[in-house]
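Observation: inputs received (chain + zinc ion).
Thought: call the complex predictor directly.
Action: predict_structure
Action Input:
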Amino acid sequence: MAESGLLEDLYREIILDHYRQPRNHGVTIESTCSAEGANPLCGDQVCIDVALVDGLVEGISFSGHGCSISQASASMMTEYVKGRTAAEALRGVEAFQQMMLTGEAPEIDGFDDIASLVGVAKFPARVKCASLAWKTLAQALAEGGGSVTTDDGSR
Ligand code: ZN
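Observation:
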């Protein structure tokens, strides 16, 4: 018990660190695609701009507001995809969604901080918070733009 408590504390610290000092937040880039995402259940919003050059994410910036989980996850996502190819970024989206389904952190390169969100999998309402930025990224990369919502009822 004591050990899992320590791990939870560590994870909480990582999440709060990204929330308080979000990476790639509000930076100016020459974006080639962007998308907006909303999670109406919690009131989270993210807007993601990506500078895709020759299939590589050369720059990424996000803005938005919402709960600590949604904003920390957006920060971690940008850190992960920057410098990777669009295909790798989309595989990251898949790995993240898989982590939210299984409650197990994938052992892939660059997911160290992201693994701190693994505990969110136990709370379906918070999964929507954590997934928002990743879904929005997929919208920007795979669809070239537009908007997504975690309120999937209409689809
Ligand atoms: Zn939220």
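Thought: report the result.
Final Answer: The beta strands are 33-39, 44-53, 56-65, 146-149. The CA atoms of residues 100 and 121 lie 5 Å apart.
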